Amino acid sequence: MSRLIFVLLDGLRAAAADSHMGFMAALTEHGDARRLTLDCALPPLSRPLYATLITGRTPAELGLFHNGDARPCPVPTLFHKARDARRVTAAAAYYWFSELCNRSPFDPGRDRLTLDAALPIGHGLFYQRDDYPDEELFHDAEALRRRCAPDLLLVHSMNIDNAGHVSGGHNAAYRQAVREADRLLSLWIPLWQAAGYAVCVTADHGMHADGQHDDLVDDVRRVPLWFIGDAWRGPLDALGHAPRQTDIARLCLEVLGVQGAS
Length: 262
Hints:
The chain is α/β, with parallel strands linked by helices.
C-alpha cells in the first residue's frame, strides 16, 4: 500500500507538455517517471472528464455530457472507495470536484474549506475562480498534506486551461502557463517523493488554437500522463495494455491498496 498524489493539469495538451515541460522530461529521461500519451474520452469537456478520471467510466456510461450538469457523480468515485477503505482523502481543486464527490450545489461558506472525514473528499480547499493562481493552489495542497497526512491527495490546477480559453492554445500566455506548471512540479514532486508518495500527473483534455476544447482533433484529445514512483510498476505491468483514461482510477486504487479497485 502506498500513498498517492494525483496532479491534474487542466487543459494541457500532449504536444505542449513535450515542448515546454523540461522538469517532467528530465524525470522521464532519467528513468524516474514513465511518460505516456493517451486520448481523452468524449465529449472532451472538463466536468464529464473529471468524472471519468475518478470513476473509470466514460461520460456516456455516466450520462454526464456537459459542464452545466452539477449532479453528484452517479457511481462511486476513487474518493468514495478510498474513504470506505479507511484511507484519508483530500483535494485542493476546482469546486466541481466537491460537487461530483461530496455534495451539490457548492456552497462556498460550507464547502470551500471541508473538514469532514465522513465525506468522500474528507479534507478540501476548493476554489471557484478559473484564474486562481497555480502557485497558491500548490500551497493549498501542501497545507492539506502537512495538516491531514492524506493517503490520497488531488491537486487540480486551472491556469493552463484558463490561459488557453483567454488567449488560445497556441499563444504565448498558454505556453507560459505550461512552463509555470512544470516549475511548480519541480519544486513539489521531489518533496512529495521524499515523503513517500507515488505521483500521477495528467490532464483532462488539451486545448485548440481557437481557445476551445470541444473539437475532435489531436490538440484537444491527446493528453500526457506520467507515473512517478516504484509503486506504479506492479499495477502497470498487470494492466496488459497501454493505459487509457478510463484505467487511471483503477490504477490509483491499486497503488492505494484498496480492494475492489476494478
